[in-house]
Amino acid sequence: MQAAASWFARLHGAADDPGIVAQWNAWLAEDARHRLAWRYVEAINQRFGNLHADADHAHQVLSAAHRERHSRRSVLGSLCIASTAGLLGWGSWRQGWIDSPRAWFATYRTGLAEVRPLTLRDGSRVWLNGQTALDVQFDDAVRRLRLYRGEILIETGADTRPLEVVTRAGRMQPFGTRFSVRDQGLRTTLSVFAGAVQATCAESGRTLRAEAGQMVVFDVQQGTASGSATALRQDWSRGVLVAEDMPLGQVVAVLKDYRHGHLGIDPGLDDLRVVGTYPLLDTDRALAMLERALPIRVVRTLPWWVSVEAG
Known about the structure:
Blueprint: H1 2-13, H2 18-30, H3 32-68, H4 72-95, E1 108-109, E2 116-119, E3 125-128, E4 133-138, E5 143-155, E6 163-166, E7 170-184, E8 187-201, E9 207-211, E10 214-218, E11 223-228, H5 232-235, E12 240-247, H6 248-256, E13 262-265, E14 273-279, H7 283-293, E15 296-302, E16 305-310
Parallel strand pairs: 5-6, 13-16
Antiparallel strand pairs: 1-4, 2-3, 3-5, 4-5, 5-7, 6-7, 7-8, 8-9, 8-10, 10-11, 12-14, 15-16
Domain FecR protein: 107-198
GO molecular function: sigma factor antagonist activity
Protein name: Transmembrane sensor
């Protein structure tokens, strides 16, 4: 994939050079993995290309409106179309496609590399991680939070009404607690930091209880204890990654969730140990800090293709 990204960069600057094109075609023909990697690079570029195309379209509409001296109504109509296309392109590129259509109309949504704190009417405090969609539904009988995508950290407020958090996998009822819920499609990860939470699988009705310091993973049918609740599942609310002898491969995997494009790592560096506090919402700065602290180098083949390699 790194070679495919390098070829993409070379062709971008020399697409009319028959020698370069011939070498590229020969590289493609060498191995099916080369062709697969090339399609992957093209797919990532397409996401960025759509964004640039929307911006170009908006510029063309504005220029045409100026040249042709359209009526005020016509110009406003063109601007609305261009702006809508641009915003939709930006939104889908920035946030990614959300599985459930209801997520688009959720009460609260965040984009990539965005952490949002909330204080609800009952006094509960909620933090939304990046690319999260959450509905808040309070009535006289129950306080309900519906998590369609992403991750939330909750500190429950004092209220006589029961509180429940609902995902596709099931529902969770806390008992005076601080906990995080991470939706992973068909699975949900529950990490409890104080108090206790009972989780109920959506289809089977099976229940699991997680006490402070525990983490459970469950789907619509069953669940299981999955070790200790890690600090990572609440440190993100402060916009940081605290690494205490953490494998570099895991650090890179976390940073991937807070940036666009491809972020890869040489597999030989996966087990390199990392210590320190790194900014999640500024991954370029985090990578620069890692580069200074470890025997690695960060290679930026393209603006949206970054690799961590041996220094």
